Amino acid sequence: MTADPSPPVRLPEQPTRPTVTREYLAAAALALIDAHGLRKFSMRKLGTAGGFDPMAVYRHYADQEDLFDGVAEMLFAEVDVDTLPWDGPWQQLARDYCLRLRDTLLRHPNAVSLFATRPVRSPASIDTGVRMLTELRDAGISPAEALRITRCLREFTVGHALSVAVTKLGADRRSRKPQPGSPDYNLLAEAADATALDDHFETGLTAMLRGFEQLAR
């Protein structure tokens, strides 16, 4: 077996207490995933990188999937929802939340698929959901309709981040887009050359929010 040629990972500073914490483990796991990708992650590698017995993880998380839930919660915490414009119009609140969530996820492209494939059930996430629905309810949108709106916005944002992350991680190498001047250089290829990978996000977000405004009384 050959040694892993990947560069060393800078993990968060380990707590001074004799046992690691739940938060430290999630942050360390995210650092490893950022550096090496989700497929190369293992509890053993986490323990080796952090200098502790991998079995220590199971004192805080039931299994690896449970740990990944903790990583998703760590990503959500990075959005820093408390500093969103809660006192402004709900449209601005929703826009800023989506933009901040997208930017957070794209800082961790290797972890986007992890975030996209599990619900975030942390108290902070639940509290944010309640606050969002309250804002929309106060604007005249029923709680059920408000939940549909927030789900649409979240799925659009996470799906966009996933698409961009996959491309940035190497999917663009498989592109067969014809080059300018070639016989098969068509209108689609020309339009692709005139746009950026992620410059349609705000266009779509604006269109969605304008449509949702019709649901407010």
From TrEMBL:
DNA repair as UniProt keyword: no
InterPro entries noted in UniProt: Homeodomain-like_sf (IPR009057), HTH-type_TetR-like_transc_reg (IPR050109), HTH_TetR (IPR001647), Repressor_TetR_C (IPR004111), Tet_transcr_reg_TetR (IPR003012), Tet_transcr_reg_TetR-rel_C_sf (IPR036271)
Residue ranges constituting the HTH tetR-type domain according to the UniProt record: 19-79
UniProt cross-references to Pfam families, sorted A to Z: TetR_C_1 (PF02909), TetR_N (PF00440)
Record keywords, A-Z: DNA-binding, Repressor, Transcription, Transcription regulation
DNA-binding region per UniProt: 42-61
UniProt KW Cell wall biogenesis/degradation keyword: no
Protein name: TetR/AcrR family transcriptional regulator
